[in-house]
Amino acid sequence: MMVRIPGVLTPEQVQHCRQALAGAEWTDGRATAGYQSAQVKSNLQLPEDHPVARSLGELIMDALGRNPLFIAAALPLKVYPPLFNRYEGGGRFGSHIDNAVRQIAGTSHRVRTDVSATLFLADPDEYDGGELLVDDTYGAKGVKLPAGDMILYPGTSMHQVTPVTRGARLASFFWVQSLVRDDVRRSMLFDLDVAIQQLGGELPEHQALVQLAGVYHNLIRHWADT
Ligand code: NI
């Protein structure tokens, strides 16, 4: 399931991030890549423990915690602290699947990467190329969103970022360990949740809503690992 979350950050927050990132020291993105992905990766990243990454990461985590669509779609148990990357001058990241488990730098905490997230910090007209291509059941889906918007996609999927041939593509990326590891189950729960919300808006007094909400929570109880 791919879900677009619009307006995770306000235009002012995007501006704040961009100003902070403009003055930061970027390093070669291959530093955090495994042996295989290092061969197809050419971009810049902010080191995980960089103070700018830490403080902007907190701003993003705070915004996510108050975003009902993100919570409904990802059912987050743990969120890997957001990282930042920059593609320019032909920079790209060829087809790969992200590592299944990531250790949070400087801690013993590990996050299973059930859901991958890209939060765009540059608008589509600022750069050419730099499309996120995610393989799903029906072929590759291209994603290029306005600054402040985010895309969620299954951590299990093959994906790539196409070469940036003009301008710079700036983004934050991170992973979520979900309460519900399986993407099929998670997407059914999301559909059920959306339908319940819609019914609740139109027929708030309907008795079946209580039963449906109960089924939703009992499914989570049944499927959640915590
Ligand atoms: Ni990736």
Structural write-up:
The structure is a single chain. The chain has 226 residues and is α+β, with helices and mostly antiparallel strands. Helices cover 33% and strands 31% of the residues. The chain has helices spanning 11-22, 35-38, 51-65, 68-74, 183-202, 208-223; strands spanning 3-5, 27-28, 41-42, 44-45, 76-79, 83-88, 92-96, 101-103, 110-112, 115-120, 128-129, 132-136, 139-143, 150-154, 159-161, 164-166, 168-178. The strands form four sheets. Strands 1, 2, 4, 5, 6, 10, 14 and 17 form an eight-stranded antiparallel sheet that branches. A five-stranded antiparallel sheet has the order 3-7-15-12-13. The chain has a two-stranded antiparallel sheet with strand order 8-9. Helix 1 (11-22) packs antiparallel against helix 3 and helix 5 packs antiparallel against helix 6 (208-223). The longest helix has 20 residues, at 183-202. The model has no long low-confidence stretch (mean pLDDT 95). The structure holds nickel (II) ion. Nickel (II) ion is lined by residues 96, 98, 159. Nickel (II) ion binds next to loops.
Compact description:
The protein is built from 6 helices and 17 strands. The chain has 226 residues and is of the alpha+beta class.
Chain-averaged pLDDT:
95
Bound compounds, each kind once, are:
nickel (II) ion
Give the overall silhouette: globular
- Sheet with most strands: 8 strands, antiparallel
> What is the count of DSSP helices, taking H or I runs of 4+ residues?
6
Q: Determine the strand fraction and express it as a percent band.
A: 25-35%
Gap from first CA to last CA: 22 Å
Give the helix proportion (percent range). Answer: 25-40%
**Uncertain residue ranges:** none
Give a count of the beta strands, DSSP E runs of length 2 or more: 17
By helix and strand content, what is the structural category?
alpha+beta
The helix-strand sequence is: EHEHEEHHEEEEEEEEEEEEEHH
Alpha carbon gyration radius: 18 Å
